[in-house]
Specification:
By secondary structure, the chain is of the alpha+beta class. It has 2 domains: 267 residues, 3-Layer(aba) Sandwich (Aminopeptidase); 192 residues, Alpha-Beta Plaits (2-Layer Sandwich). 31% of the residues lie in helices and 26% in strands. It is built from 11 helices and 26 strands. It has an 8-stranded antiparallel beta sheet, covered by helices on one side. It has a 6-stranded mixed beta sheet with strand order 1-2-6-3-7-24, with helices on both faces. A hairpin with a 3-residue loop joins β1 and β2. α1 crosses α11, α2 runs antiparallel to α4 and α10 crosses α11. The longest helix has 20 residues. The chain is elongated, with a radius of gyration of 24 Å.
Length: 467
């Protein structure tokens, strides 16, 4: 039986775009400050989960909401553990600065749909859903159950998916539509470290803050300076020279009531590719390190300037590592807090085989100055790998090749997806080779034609696994 998957998608394209527009209109970032018993991760993730499940209820699928933390949409019959799992997420990172439009008021322009979550991961997740919808509506025969499982905080601590695994049976085989085509068959380990410094003494720098999430290179940084410790004209002269020497950043100084506020704007990026961003915080810290600081403040800012700034491989911390298959370790400092009660930096590290959380802890602490310590913050995700010649990989990549004519081979990345949860799982689409990676960046978008093509690829690939 020959099926024109792309034609089937075209018949449903308006409905898919309407559903996606509704879904990306929801600000579904994790918001535990407003959590309740009904909204365990805040109201946004729950609204997005319920909206997605409502689409499936409307279309006659069997669904389950697991305590407003995760959800499931099923097609076919069979044992849960033998099902093909498709793991997507409905949460997003914060909108953040730098947008040309409201990140939660979707806009279609030049064939692209702009909104936070359009590419990561509401667009690809919904494409996977429509793939199941096509298989269902065509009443195609299946030999296995498919479960589309939705998480609600993939961008943070994976509480939703972990809760799902406590309550439900997770399939062993499948994919996550949350990365790139033709397939991501290897994901580096992911771990964050909190580096804690001694409480600083009062001095020129009153506060220094930057960063939104551990997996986002900070685009903006701000410091407040106490002008009792240095003349504002000298600071302005030094800052203007610093900006002139560093054309990639923009900055500003304003004064009020004896305080100078210094801001730097760089470029945000996904933490898995820190070299694609411009870390505003390390630039600002490098400037502050040139000023007259006392010893306790100098300890903090000199460490950032000399050990973290522009060192994406972690060589200054002695953690550089390369694996022939998984590539190089990458490091990015993404959250900075400095005030009269605390001083710390959060590092996000993507590491290949050959390291563990324990070895990295030992190496980093050995490189730190006296009185400064580092410890793992949050959960440590170990590296994950499935061989390129595995039947799962071959089936998925085969569908991609057939629909695109592109023979690019699967590869390894520093990003972390739900694909690593599955014992036998990979990440599969929906970004194409050569596409601009707009995940976690301002003006995130997904190209509509490519989204529709991805839906056809997903439908074909899923059916290859279950027919």
């Amino acid at each position: 039986m020959s099926i024109d998957w792309e034609k089937e998608v075209a018949h449903r394209s308006d409905e898919l775009i309407n559903d996606l527009t509704e879904l990306v209109s929801i600000d579904s970032q994790r918001d535990i400050e407003h959590k309740t018993s009904d909204y365990p991760l805040g109201p946004g993730p729950v609204e997005a989960l319920q909206t997605f499940l409502h689409f499936a209820d409307r279309d006659g699928f069997e669904t389950k909401n697991v305590d407003n933390l995760a959800g499931r949409i099923e097609l076919g019959e069979g044992e849960d553990k033998d099902a093909i799992g498709i793991l997507a997420h409905v949460d997003v990172v914060p909108g953040g600065p730098g947008w040309n439009t409201d990140p939660f008021d979707p806009v279609i322009k030049d064939g692209n749909l702009y909104a936070r979550g359009a590419a990561d991961d509401k667009g690809p997740g919904l494409a996977s859903y429509y793939a199941l919808k096509i298989i269902k509506e065509l009443k195609l025969p299946t030999t296995k159950k498919v479960q589309l499982i939705l998480g609600t905080d993939e961008e943070s601590e994976w509480v939703g998916m972990n809760h799902y695994m406590e309550k439900e049976t997770m399939p062993e085989t499948g994919f996550s539509p949350d990365a790139e085509f033709p397939a991501i068959n290897g994901e580096k380990g992911i771990v964050s470290f909190m580096i804690n410094f001694p409480t600083p003494e009062a001095g020129l720098v009153k506060t220094f803050n930057a960063g939104i999430r551990p997996n986002m290179v900070p685009q903006n940084a701000e410091a407040e300076l106490d002008l009792n410790f240095e003349n504002i004209e000298a600071i302005k002269t030094a800052f203007n020279q610093f900006l002139n020497d560093n054309k990639d950043i923009k900055g500003n100084i304003s004064t009020k009531n004896g305080t100078a506020t210094v801001t730097v704007t760089g470029k945000g990026a996904h933490a898995m590719e820190p070299f694609n961003g411009i870390n505003a915080a390390t630039y600002l810290a490098t400037f502050l390190n040139e000023l007259e600081l006392n010893d306790s403040q100098k300890l903090y800012f000199s460490f950032i300037a000399n050990n973290l700034h522009l060192d994406f491989a972690g060589s200054k911390l002695g953690i550089q590592n390369t694996d022939d298959v998984m590539g190089e370790l990458t490091m990015t400092p993404d959250i900075f807090v400095f005030n009269d009660s605390e001083a710390n930096v959060l590092l996000n590290i993507r590491y290949p085989k050959g390291d563990t959380g324990e070895t990295l802890t030992e190496k980093i602490n050995a490189a730190l100055p006296d009185g400064v310590t580092a410890s793992i913050d949050g959960h440590n995700q170990l590296p994950h790998f499935v061989a390129a010649d595995d039947p799962l990989v071959q089936a998925l990549v085969g569908a991609y090749h057939d629909h695109t004519g592109d023979n690019t081979e699967p590869f390894t990345v520093g990003g972390g997806t739900y694909g690593r949860i599955l014992k036998h799982g990979i990440a599969f689409g929906a970004m194409y080779p050569g596409d601009e990676n707009v995940m976690h960046q301002p003006n995130e978008y997904i190209n509509i034609d490519k989204l529709l093509k991805a839906t056809a690829i997903y439908a074909d690939a899923i059916y290859r696994l279950i027919k």
